Amino acid sequence: MEWLKPFEANNQFEDNTNSLLDFKIREFIRESNVQKKYSLLTQFFLLLGSQDYNSVTSLFVDNRIDNQVIEEIIMHFDNTKIVLVNELPSEILLSMPNQESLSLIRSDNLNPIIKNLYGTINNTQYKWRPQKSYKVLSEFIEKYEDMEFDEVLDCLKNASKGPIISLALSSWTLEDTFAIRYFTHKCKNVYLWIDDANIVTTIQLEIN
User: Fold this and answer.
1) Helix or strand or coil: residue 184?
2) 162's torsion region: left (phi>0), alpha (psi -120 to 50) or beta?
3) Most buried in the list 16, 75, 113, 195, measured by CB within 10 Å?
4) In whole angstroms, what is the distance from residue 190 CA to residue 56 CA?
5) Is this structure's pTM higher than 0.70?
6) In angstroms, rounded to a whole number, what is the distance separating the alpha carbons of residues 193 and 131?
7) Which residues neighbour 5 within 8 Å (Cβ) at sequence distance 6 or greater?
8) Cα(66)–Cα(198) distance, integer angstroms
9) For 48-86, what is each residue's pLDDT tens digit?
């Protein structure tokens, strides 16, 4: 496809581990007076987490957890742990999406980008195949705007450690989609990991 260019991925990571920091992992204790709220953030993170029941979704935070994150994301997962650094929240670990919340989300109208990314229920386990990485060439991609999804992208930027956001996918096929059209013109660069069966396994967003 003319809008994809082979790209040699660089998997080098900087080690920022500081042995003097005090790391702890604790269960998140839900307060009885906090109620679930549903939003596009709920749609996105629930469906992301439901792609693989054993997966863990990580969100980085800066010393505090906003009420919006608690009500619209954390409350919809049955297992949540908090990574503390020097007794302050540093990372949220989400697993086991709540089935009641999932059913309600799936019965409602999904945002087009979220539906494109995670709207298909995949009951078959993915079989690993050799993959290659490609850069999406923005000049060949028609722009797609979605002001509602802008909130989700802002959340992803705030909850990521570094300039790269990687989203695991389970049933994407190689074609021009709402998500590609949106991300390509919202991010500095977009990269796709594609296996030998033309299944897109990962979309990587370079945000700055």
Assistant:
1) helix
2) left
3) 113
4) 23
5) yes
6) 6
7) 134, 135, 137
8) 39
9) 999 887 889 999 998 999 999 999 999 999 999 999 999
